[in-house]
Amino acid sequence: YRVGALEFRGVHCVGMPGPASKRRVPVSQAGMTDPHQLFDDTSSDQSRCYGAQRASGDLGYPTTTSSPQADFLAHPVSNMAVAYGSSLAAQGKELVDKNIDRFIPVTKLKYYFAVDTVYVGKKLGLLVFPYLHQDWEVQYQQDTPVAPRFDVNAPDLYIPAMAFITYILVAGLALGTQDRFSPDLLGLQASSALAWLTLEVMAILLSLYLVTVNTDLTTIDLVAFLGYKYVGMIGGVLMGLLFGKIGYYLVLGWCCVSIFVFMIRTLRLKILAEAAAEGVPVRGARNQLRMYLTMAVAAAQPLLMYWLTFHLVR
C-alpha cells in the first residue's frame, strides 16, 4: 500500500505464501561470521585475551600464582630440614668412603690400573722375552713409585685381570670344541684358578713372615706378579687348539721358562732388598733362605701353568 511517499509491504506468515516471494539471505553485518564458514575464527579473541594477560603482568608476562610446594619450601623450617638432610647425606658418604677404603684400598688400586697401550705392549713383550731386558729396578719419585705407564718394571693389575678373564673364555672355547662344555665345569675352572692364586699369596706372605724379610712387597704386588702367568697359559691353550699337543707344549714350555726368569729378576730386588741396596751378595743363612724363597716362588709358576691347562688340550 502506498500512502503518500511511504510504502508498506505486507508481512507473510508461515504457510501463507505471498505473491512472487523469494528467499532472502540476510546481509552479513559487521562483527557477524560468514554463514558458509564451518568454524568460528577466535584468533583475534585469543590475541586480545593474551594481550590483556600480558598487560596485567609485571614484566609483560602472565602472572603466575605460587604453588603450595613453593610456599612450603620457602618456609624457614623446611629450609632447615633440607640443610640437615644434606649434612646427613654428606656424613654418610664420608663414612662409606672410609669403610670402603679400609677394606678395599681404592686409592691404591688406581695406581695399579694407571696403564696405557704402550705400557701394555711393552709389558707383554717383557713377559714373553725377559732375556733382553737389563734394568729391572722400579723407578721412584719422592719415595713413591711412578705409575706403571711410565715404568715397565712397575707391577699392574690390568694385565692380570684381563688375562684371567681371557683365560676363562679360552678354557670355555677349548671345552666347547671337545663337546665337554657346561656352565658348572667353566665355573669350576674359574674357581680353581682363583683358589690356587689365593693359596699362593697366603703361602708367600707366611713365608716372608717366617723368614722375617723386610720388604716393600705388598699383597697387591704379589697378586700382580702371580697373575702374569695367565698370559703364558692363554698362549699355550690357543696354540694347543690350533696345532694340537705339539704346539701346546712348545709355546707353554717357552712361556714357563720366560715367567721363571721374569719372577727371579723381579722378586730378587724385592725380597733381597738388603743385598741389592749394598750392591754385593751378603752371605749368610738369612739371605740363603730369601734366595730359596725367591726360587720356590718362581718355580711354582710353571707347575701351576701346566696344572691349570693340561686338561684343556687333547
Structure description:
The protein has helices at 43-56, 68-73, 76-103, 106-112, 117-128, 158-177, 183-211, 219-227, 229-271, 273-278, 285-307, and strands spanning 2-3, 6-7. It is mostly helical. Helix 6 packs antiparallel against helix 9 (229-271) and helix 9 packs antiparallel against helix 11. It starts with a strand and ends in a 7-residue tail after the last helix. Its main location: endoplasmic reticulum. Has a role in transport between endoplasmic reticulum and Golgi.
| Gap from first CA to last CA | 127 Å
What sort of overall outline do the alpha carbons produce when their principal axes are compared?
globular
Which sequence of SSEs, written as H and E, runs from N to C?
EEHHHHHHHHHHH
Computed CA radius of gyration, to the nearest angstrom = 44 Å
- Report the biggest beta sheet as strand number plus sense, adding barrel if it closes: 2 strands, antiparallel
Oligomer status:
single chain
Helical proportion?
55-70%
Percent of residues in β-strands? under 5%
Structural class, from helix and strand content?
mainly alpha
- The poorly predicted ranges are 1-8, 10-33, 46-61
Mean pLDDT: 77
Total helices: the number is: 11
Number of strands: 2
Looking across the biggest beta sheet, what order are the strands in? Answer: 1-2
Main location: endoplasmic reticulum
Protein name: Protein YIF1
Family: Belongs to the YIF1 family.
Keywords: Endoplasmic reticulum, Golgi apparatus, Membrane, Protein transport, Transmembrane, Transmembrane helix, Transport
